[in-house]
Amino acid sequence: MVLPRNKLLCVWAASVLLTTTTRVVATTTTSSFSPSALSWVPRGGSSSSSATAIVDGMGQVKKGASGNVMSGTVVALLTSPGTPNLFSDSNVGITAADAGKNVVVVQAPGATLVGSSGLAAGAGAAAAGSVASAIVVTGVTHTDVMEFRNSRHGKTLSALFDHALGSSSSSDSKKSLILCIQGTDTVDQDALIEQVEAIFAASACTALAKASDAPKDAPLPTLSDLYDVEVATIMNSNDASKVMSMAQVAAGKSGEVVPNVVSAVAEAYVAGSAANKGGSATMTTTTADPPAVVEAMLACEDAFARHARTARAKLYAWKSRTSRGLRVEKFGALAEALLKRTMALYDNDTMAAAGYGSSVAPYRLEKRSKLVKKIETPIRQLFALQVSNLEKTTLQKFNAMLLRKHGKTSPATSDFYTENAAAMRSAAFAFDTAMTDLEIPSLSLTKAKPSQELNGKLNSLLTGFADSPAAKLKLMKAIKKGANKQKKPTERSIDAGLDIVAMIRPDGFGTFQGFTGYQLGGNSITVGVHNDADDPGVISQFGGVRPPFIRVQPKLRLDVEL
Predict the structure, then answer these.
(1) pLDDT(418) > 50
(2) How far, in Å, CA of 198 to CA of 116, rounded?
């Protein structure tokens, strides 16, 4: 059967692996479970309940298991063989335990990478998940997250989703799916969920391919239609108890009660095992696409991813340069060559897919269109950024040139515009020349519109320069400088003046002191009186003799201006 294009896209999308790592927040829900060997006892409850084995470690259904009737909402615990289990001491077989409060915990081992049937293929996990309202996947390590699609947990979820999508039973409420990251808290939660969505998309495509009564254009179900996915980090048994508490609350909200849990799990396991062996337990099988068609579509997907990655590396280098305000030399020619070369390589790698008609050719063209868009969009953004940088640089240089000429000619006159019109044309020409290296005519990225816009901005800058803040600031500085500048004398002159200072010192011991002065034009006289001639201290200053009665000190002052 040849599937419609909308039913096949997700098969190859599921092969994309996301490996970046960030922080993921650990679960902090209040715990109401405490893990034990094979059962979970509520706080304040009794530990007398025991686990009932449904399927043994060899994958055989235990006889008489269905006679033990357990009813209630179901929490499925999918363990990981080979990884230490923080929830239980057992990773073998399927068991059911009454956890109290109308909750039954069904524990089942997940798939292994080497198994192809039974429990090793994930049939037990699928059976437990089919009857559960909340599903807990344990034992996911950091290595598993990096290659989740190809890990044992990816195989487990694939079996779980295949069973859920292939089952004829339906439920109005979504199930809770909790992925427990064990032993590390550095994992990208969004990337992990995207990988789970890819696994679900592959299962959805397979289910539609096998459904004979599905409409031709039936939409593919999504992961969010059936499950509420959460990611939790567990480091110890206390964290495991918190996760089990979350699962119990989620299962209780669904309100789905299974009358006989053991019997329902056993029947689901038998039906799933039969389907894996080629039976028709839950769905009708039909013929899938030929291997050559699948190989051609995978070739298109691989070529798309490979060439997109190569082009993205080149575009990132250009973006790093332009983000610093720099231009990429000969950007237009380089960008056009990158686009043409990438599409030519894609067409060459996928040429064989064009011959498969309506099954593969439309898919090839769709991937080609996406590849063109992935390259053209960044190129347009880089073009716009470089045009903006070039325009900003040109306007700054032109404005700086006007500031240098400010003062020689008043910017408010027509002469200022006339004298700088040539400089404006020179700036526009330099911009036009630089734009020649940037334009990409094949993408309609030309220099016509940017050059026209720049001419308008240059003209506006020139005509409005007199009112610009920069011009006003420079004018204020010039006025302030002129006001503070000292004027030089207009004539040379020499002015002379005589200053006379006299001191009278009559007899006495310093009880009287006074000064008087008189100024006439450039001349002045100052006379002082102090009766300290008999003061021993004064006499000692003069070598034991009395100071002179009067002392006169003349001073000639000359003021010269050159």
Answers:
(1) yes
(2) 21
